[in-house]
Protein 1
Amino acid sequence: MKPPRSSKNDVFLRYKLWLSAVSGEGIIGEGKYKLLRMIEKLGSLKAAAESLGVSYRKAWGDIKESEELLGYDLTEKTRGGVGGGNSVLTSKAKNLLEAYDALHKKMDNAIEDAYDDFKKKIS
Amino acid sequence: MKPPRSSKNDVFLRYKLWLSAVSGEGIIGEGKYKLLRMIEKLGSLKAAAESLGVSYRKAWGDIKESEELLGYDLTEKTRGGVGGGNSVLTSKAKNLLEAYDALHKKMDNAIEDAYDDFKKKIS
DNA sequence: AGTCGATATGTTATCTACTTCATATCGGTG
DNA sequence: CACCGATATGAAGTAGATAACATATCGACT
């Protein structure tokens, strides 16, 4: 018989990766990454927050916190006008997202390499 | 003047790595790793929990949860007797810790490699 | 047989992060 | 120039995680 593809005791590796300030606060991780990408896509913080199922209050606070920690803006905000306002990514934000992508890719490769070895050891 | 070694806007990368069940619960990560290593060192769950500044209740629950998820014991428990009882690691637990160590080392290397590249990109 | 200290486990309180609510501000467009 | 909808921000309510508290159980040693 062939082995089951997964069992009750199946396990796998997970990891979180983030950029942090010396003070410990997270500047960008999975959550803020997704939020920024969604702002890029939708052109609005409100729409981005809603589409991710996170409160506007938190999304707004997250962006603000990151910007304060980094010392530069990640989004260019507009109030009033057509549609009430909007948010678009700054070029620095886009740059940061690119760098985060590359980093994540490298770590994904590393963990994939280490995974088989790990499973062999614990089985 | 020479540049400061660190500034207000200094940032660095951090990551967490853990073994997870399909259901999502963590089987072993930094916390349980430290707890198990401390049990190994001190020979008691109570002493280990206290030395790590975590409540006995939580430490006990953590170990139990991991054991249930893995389907095997990580500690051999004794009640009564000299000293009131004790906990020692099973060989499977030691094995798991070894594998976790190796994995972490690999990831540490990977992140170190990626770090300079990342910083160059975002600065 | 009684003592002692660790394991074992339910119950209640506290902490903290996030959501909800409330309210103000801005400015292009009709 | 009033209106609308997004940004901006304080304040209060909620839920999930952890700590604190309370008790029971076990068994070698005296």
Protein 2
Amino acid sequence: MNIRTLCLGILSFREATGYEIKKLVEEGMFSHFIDASYGSIYPALTHMESEGMLTVRAEEQSGKPDKKVYAITERGRASLSEALDVLPRPDKFKSEFLFQMLLARALSGEQLAAVYDTRLRDLTEELGRIKACSTAGATDFGLRFVNGYGQAIVGAAVQYLEERREEMLNEAASRSADAAE
Amino acid sequence: MNIRTLCLGILSFREATGYEIKKLVEEGMFSHFIDASYGSIYPALTHMESEGMLTVRAEEQSGKPDKKVYAITERGRASLSEALDVLPRPDKFKSEFLFQMLLARALSGEQLAAVYDTRLRDLTEELGRIKACSTAGATDFGLRFVNGYGQAIVGAAVQYLEERREEMLNEAASRSADAAE
DNA sequence: TCGATATATATCGACTTGATATAAAAATCG
DNA sequence: CGATTTTTATATCAAGTCGATATATATCGA
């Protein structure tokens, strides 16, 4: 699935500017399982507009650059349907954190603790954000499902990190002691 | 973190060829949270060899192309330490499946069921694979931690999908009925 | 024996990211 | 009130990465 399909999907909910799409993907309901940069969003919108999948409405604003509000067309909806009518590719999960944990033996005890606690804090905050918007999207069952998924997965991660914290940091500390002998 | 650091990390465990690195990343302990293609691995190895971070040993094989076995040098270990001495970037999770679930209203009931059950089966298999290699890596505490993390997260996903299955498919079916009225 | 799969390296087009540029309104703050 | 930061908004580009493909041989099962 490419950025074009992502944009079509978002625009199937409501019309939006490239900037708004980026914000949705960065902070909104989408942020937990999708990525997209300006460098891919803007060309995608321009391209799809030229293909008749979107319409643009330039909202003039005093001084500021025109706001280009994109809306999906029938052709766009057809293209979206087509793109969704295939089995999704396997999920992709990239974690520099887990890579560092795997190489934990190469880290100092302090560094490990710093990395671990930062990750735990970030995950806890993320869980809070997900729970915060669980009430808002209670209408659509797709939204509810995705929000619940986020809570389940991030919740499990937080729980695991909390459970293993002592063990992990102690083991790293004792290993440092071994090395010092 | 780039592919170069990934290669250094793997080569800090043992020497390997580009092909073996790709297999480890694709099937081994790393596969659940790392990605890398030949198109990035081979150039990275060549480049780092020229910088003195790796050594190559060409193992001749009758007929087959030479096996280029790479090993990390002291300079390579130093570079790895340096690369690990920063806070990891936030994890990235990309899921076409969740994107489709979000747009579930645009899918037919049959398509939704097919997508859902495929995902559930894939996740269950992945959980099996992770559990299968949990005994093997019981020695290193980094390996144990990462394996446990995988079990916790994928286990939570499987559980969530199983719990919500009826609800999700029923709701999709009833929505189809609404649309038909 | 014949097609499929595995071993092994290598390249390349297409796509994406992350950074940067530009510009002005709005908000924050001493 | 004036100064600084943040937010709104579009756009581009180098660097990095993926996915596909090419090449060549061995091995394994039907």
Protein 3
Amino acid sequence: MSEPRSPITDPSREVTLPDGRVVSVAAGMSALEIAKQHELPRRGRAIAARFNGRAIDLHAALPEAGHLSLIYPEDPDALEILRHSTSHVMAQAVKELFPDTKIAQGPAIEDGFYYDFRRDEPFTDEDLEQIEQRMREIVERNLQIRRHEVAKAVAERMFEQEQEPYKLYFVREKSGPVASYYEQGGFRDFCRGPHVPSTGRLGAFKLLRTAGAYWLGSEQNEMLWRIYGTAFATEQELDAYLQQLEEARKRDHRRLGKELDLFSVQEVAGSGLVFWHPNGTIVRHEIESFLREELTRRGYVFVTTPHIARDQLFRVSGHYDYYRENMYTLRTADDEELVLKPMNCPGHVMIYDAGLRSYRDLPIRMAEYGTVYRYERSGTLAGLFRVRGFTQDDAHIFCRPDQIVEEIDGCLELVEAVFRRFGFEDFRFELSVRDPGNAEKYAGTDEEWNAAEAALVTALDRRHLTYQRYEGEAVFYGPKIDVKVVDAIGRPWQLSTVQFDFNLPRRFDIAFVDQDGQRKQPYMVHRAIYGSIERFFGILIEHFGGYFPVWLAPVQARVLPVSEKVSEYAESVLCRLQQAGLRAECDRSPDKVGAKIRNAELAKVPYMLVVGPREADSDAVSLRIHQQGDQGSVAVDAFIERARSATAERRLQP
RNA sequence: GCCAGAGUAGCUCAGUGGCAGAGCAGCUGAUUCGUAAUCAGCAGGUCGCGAGUUCGACCCUCGCCUCUGGCUCCA
């Protein structure tokens, strides 16, 4: 019988280097030592190593044979390490400046890092500056960051002595028999790592804001103070990120919504309820008309359902039990309870069920711009992105089992066709399927789920779409595909969703009569393209930065007379534009052209038509396009043709 | 809901325990002008709402409303 291999009996191991060399190294040698010995290129710049696919410290000894490579600051997975280490430096700075502070946790997150602290006073902006300053000093000190591994009990004693109750909690809850902690200049943090080898390797960082955060994210727990920051490999990347934040701020739909007079939210009326001004309403109508045309072309039918209904409807659907906290209810004079609809699905099922359906009637693609009201907690409301009253471009497809692939395919085709028209090119598809280990929590039979999941996959494959698959992420009533769309400044937004629903057909016991005369249950697919019109409108404002394409622009053209001497001609041009169906207006102010142009540019009007005596003599306009400038003289009819086609074809460019 | 910050003219924002301020927008007048701001004058306010402290509160205290950023993405 052979002994299990141990470092003593097996003092060396084979390691494959990035250049393909296979070398034998002594047990206990660290990644950095191996890199030095075998003269790996740029080893001085490396911040960590990757061993058998896992990121490890440069000082970590290799536990077994395998593949070793170095991680450089510019590598994609370096960012997480840089940010995590920067968060430790921030915690050290806070402990140095405010020794009574207790540290909780400080991970790297999507675009930066945070650290949660407990202390009596909140952090002020001045504190933040001071902390950042101290962090730079710690970087300057270039402290060694070292990993230590100790028995769990030792770690517990250590954090107990340091009076760090949150760290103690993590050691107790999360540590195996061996706990790892990191130490730099006397600052210790229970942490998995990996980290950069010394604080001097950090530098391009900035603290961004403070926030309250519940301990472990639970409202039952005390609130800690969180500091958010971000870090990058280089100052240039940090600057670029900060500039991107600035760009996003300039495009903020709340700001542009006010500047362009698109919508408002009124304090007296209540929060989360949107008032659409004339300009915003034009854009909204155009967005809706466009999709309505696309749906009509694809065989959808339109319905309209009531905003309120007896509680009974939502008891049958199950919403009354599962969705109650979000529902508004009303009580009538004769003590009847009515519910303000939070979803359109039950209404559509009502219409489906209003008659006997034959297999020949299917599929039925039933669409509605359905306005729903949902109570959302005040703290979650945000501009148009999260509101309490909103309109869904909702549709439900009722179909036979043999039609599901075709229907899903149709939904995916529609998604791309619609968003490409707005200039979105980058889509991310996410497939959520059930957790096979937890079958009892789902509505619907195995057979139904298998067919539905297969249909989603088949449709995705047929359209050659790449997608992420999420096991166990499906909601209880059916599998789904969510679609994220990336906007002009690279931000992904979850918009469309295509979901099977095995719950409602059963609850309402809807059916169709099949070829064989049997009553059978149809498949029901819930799908939305824009999702919420309000939210999508907000996204569009930010996507275009307020510069709507001609077909969406509230005012498409503004006539700018050079002086009152040509006001008669200006009015005649305006009249012809309006007769041609264009949304146009005339600047009748006594301003000079320069001012008129400036005002039109600020109002983001796509076409500016400067008219003076020269144009009046030649039945022309001098065309200026926003953000582009003077385009020269154009005959009025030619301009009208151009503007009409840009509108009719829904072109992105004026 | 909870934490922090904020709320002053239509908009963007100064300001102080003792008469409320600017720029832009608006109105009036002059200017009639060629591709991102013509000049002058006038008007504009329950300083988010409600209490309290004070001789006196926009300012200090408390409550409420609204907005903004957040509220477990490996210890």
